[in-house]
Write a structure and sequence with these properties.
This protein has helices spanning about 5-15, 65-80, 140-150, 155-165, and strands at about 20, 20-25, 30-35, 85-90, 95-100, 110-115, 120-125, 130-135, 180. It has about 180 residues and is of the alpha+beta class. Strands 4-5-6-7-8 form a 5-stranded antiparallel beta sheet. The protein has a two-stranded antiparallel sheet with strand order 1-9. Strand 5 (about 95-100) and strand 6 (about 110-115) form a beta hairpin.
């Protein structure tokens, strides 16, 4: 690995602000660096109590948030979102988890992930307009709108890559997944 690349990776590894995947795409077996956090783990106290049945003292019958809901939310978070402009996570009485992103500059995303691979998405974003839909996670329309909804979170990724590595992600050997 070139010396300058090594120093840039060390800078990233020691940074609390960035979650990245850096890889040599021409020969992945040469080297690979991954630093990954568990999505929304730092917000565990906002939903962990809801992982037991009847968790809401004001509303009997609240369904527990399950591991499968957490796994689906984690997968969506990893694939589309990041902590940039993340506001909160809230358990819902039906066993789902809702997430809100808002940059207070015209981009707002509400995502509710529930049992049975259910995804409820609402976005009002500058580059993608308003849209709302409920479906299963594998639905191509929901997946397309997840990309549209979270595009504003990744607009800074290319600039970051150019600053750190001197190249854009599409023309370099590097892929920056997300800023946190």
């Amino acid at each position: 690995m070139p010396e300058s690349m090594s120093s840039n990776i060390e800078l990233l590894k020691n940074s609390e602000k960035f979650r990245v995947l850096v890889e040599n795409t021409s020969n992945v077996s040469e080297w690979e660096f991954r630093q990954k956090t568990i999505p929304f783990e730092s917000h565990r106290d906002e939903y962990f109590y809801a992982m037991t049945p009847d968790w809401d003292p004001e509303d009997e019958g609240a369904v527990a948030v399950t591991e499968s809901v957490l796994e689906l939310a984690s997968n969506i978070f990893d694939e589309y979102a990041n902590y940039s402009h993340f506001r909160r996570i809230t358990p819902k009485r039906d066993g789902s988890l809702s997430f809100i992103w808002d940059d207070e500059e015209g981009n707002y995303v509400y995502l509710d992930v529930g049992p049975g691979q259910t995804v409820h998405l609402y976005h009002d974003v500058i580059d993608g307009g308003k849209w709302e839909g409920v479906s299963i996670a594998s639905d191509p329309q929901i997946r397309d709108h997840l990309k549209i909804a979270f595009k504003f979170l990744h607009q800074h990724d290319q600039r970051f890559c150019e600053i750190v590595f001197g190249k854009s992600p599409t023309s370099s050997l590097f892929s920056i997944l997300s800023l946190t």
